[in-house]
Structures are given as C-alpha cells and as structure tokens.
Amino acid sequence: MPLSGRRGANVWRSGEVPSPSVPPSTLVTGIFTVVALAACSTPRALRAPVDQVSAEDLDGHQERVFASDKSEGRPSRTIVLAAGGSRPPPRPPPVPPRPPPGRIDPRHQENDHTRPGHVPGRRLAGPPDAPYWEPVLEIPWRGSLQGPKPTPPQRAPGEAVEPALPTPRPPQQRPSQPPPSPATQSPQRGSNGTRSVGPAARSGTTVERTAVLERVIRFEGALNMSRTVARQLAGQRSFIPSQSILDTIAFGVRAADPQGVAGQFMYRSAASFNGSRGTLGVLVHEPSGEIRHVLFQTGVAP
Amino acid sequence: MTEQARLRLRRLLAEFRAGKLDTEAFCAQFEHTYNLELDKSTLTPAEAAAYGPLFQQVVWFSPFRDERARISNYLGEADIARAAEAAAQCLEAAPS
ipTM, 2 decimals? Predict the structure, then answer.
C-alpha cells in the first residue's frame, strides 16, 4: 500500500477536518495548508509508531526479525535503518585546514614574504613596520640544555688506527696560544665544520696529557708538527690519521726519547693496519708541543 | 708477494747505490716495502741483519736542512748513504 494514501487517511482521521460552518474560502485555504504540511519531509517515525514504519517499509524478513526483537524486549538494530533510511547522514561542513604541527616560530611570521612591504632579513629594533632589516645568517643550535653527559669508562690503550669517540668534558680555556704557523699540518676539525671547544680536554686522560695536547693542537685545529712529519704524513705515511696520533698521545705509553734528547718523549700504542698489528709511535717535544716523529711499525709490540 | 718484496728491496738498494734513485724516494719506497709488504719471518739472517738497521735509519730521514740542524734525531743524505753501504756489505758478505 502506498504510503501517501495512508498519510492522507491519517490526516483525515486526526480530527483536523473543518466544520461545515466555516466559509468555503477558509476551507480551501485550510485544505491547501494541510496538504502542504502533509507533503513536507517530516520523518515518518515522528508521526507513526516505529513498529508501523518497519512493518510498512521493510520486507517480510525484516519484519519478522523486528517482531522477535520486540518480543524479547531488546532494542532493534533496524530502528536506525528505519529512521535514517538508506541515505547516509549529512556530512558536516568541511573543516578549515589547520596549521602544521609544532611550535609556531615567530621568526617565520616575521620573515613572511607575503606581507606587503616586506624586506628580507631580521628586524633589529623598532616597531613591526620599521624598515630596520638586515640579512642574517642563522646557525642552528646543535647543543643541549641538559648539561654534560656522564663520562664513559676510560678506554684502554689499544687500536690507535681506529678513531676514538670524543669524550664530552666541560670546555677549558687555553692559557696561551702559540702563533699560527704555515699551513703544513693536517686540519683537525669538529663534526660541525667549526673548531670544537676543547679538543685537548676531550682527548686528554690526565692533566699532564691534556696540557701536552693543548700544545700539540694549534689554535686553528691543526697539529703542531715539523715539516718533515707533515711531509711524511702526506706521503708514505698517509694512512695514519690525525686522530690516531692524538689517541696515542692521550692513551699511549709514555717513555723518554730513545735517543736521549731532553724534552722529547715517545708515546707508543698498539695499532693495526690492513690486518697487520704493530705499534704507532709518536715523538713529541713536550715543551713546544711539536710532533717530531710519527711511525707505524709492524711486528713490534709497544 | 714476499718474494717480490725481497727482490724489490734488493733492487731499491742497488738503484740507490748506483745513483738512479734519490734519497727521499729511496727512503719512502724502502720504508713502505719493508714495513707493509714484507713478511719478515721469511728473511734470511743476513737480510734481516741488513734491512733491519737500514729501516731504522731511513724512517728518520729529513729532506729539510734547517730541521736537521734543529732536531738531532733527523738524518740527512749522507747518513742514509752510509747506512745503505753498510747494508749492502752485510748482504755481500753473506752466502747467497
């Protein structure tokens, strides 16, 4: 049975039929009003009981299911289908796009190129629209605010060819810095391209070794060595890295110069190269911090 | 490899004594061959007695006169030439 017919029957049986004493014009107006109201998209569930709607709109199987659910006193799953129909619920209006996650950096807003009258750079002072701008090269902060990390256990003298991990220590000021010499030494730079703070302090194991390393490492980060050593490290001994030399001075066995020169000490450490074990020896003139001899000798124990 | 290294050491010593090889090149090649390529356990007693002391000399060679004057550990061309002659005599004295 069509639903409209039932609706009409319900309308006329609801007692809204005007009395015969009403004028015809008012009757016609009322009829149109009632018909218009009946044609509106009012949910049927509001005007009819749920069981009636389910019995009218669904097939027999669903009607039996509904009846069984109703007899057991449980809420029926078909109620949602009857109330909402087969049409999906209306979608909410689109949410405006959110800003990217993370903290809002005021410098990005400050350097926003989309603003009219913007000048690239950082505003130094004055009101926001002041033309005090200057190009700025920003270096990202790679440090930490958590303080120095705990010092790992001290490394035993061993493979000098393998570079050792830098031990973080508080920065230490150098008491005196020798004047720079001609660039005949190999550079010793930090990981970020700039000279790290206190390389001698990170490599030194004792106060005396740290003092020697402070004289061995120049201000610009190069090693203080003679031209002979620099020439050899650029030639037949180029496989010896600078870090191994520093490790040998920091952790190696210290002995007097075998040739007995005053102020010179030989640092020896076990090393290996291409599977050949040997000893890396570094002769240092400690008063000046000049490295005067570097040699890896195979088949010799330190 | 070891046999080639032993032959190369003899050739280097001969070329240096003959003046075909300068001191700096001889020291660099002799050091590399003896230290990194040669299996020293295969050397004869005469070769070990000849090449060992020579190696201890060539590693201290310095081509800079001013540094040789300032640092007494460094050796010059004359010192290396004398060490090479001593090694050659040690090899010639031993039966081949």
Answer: 0.93
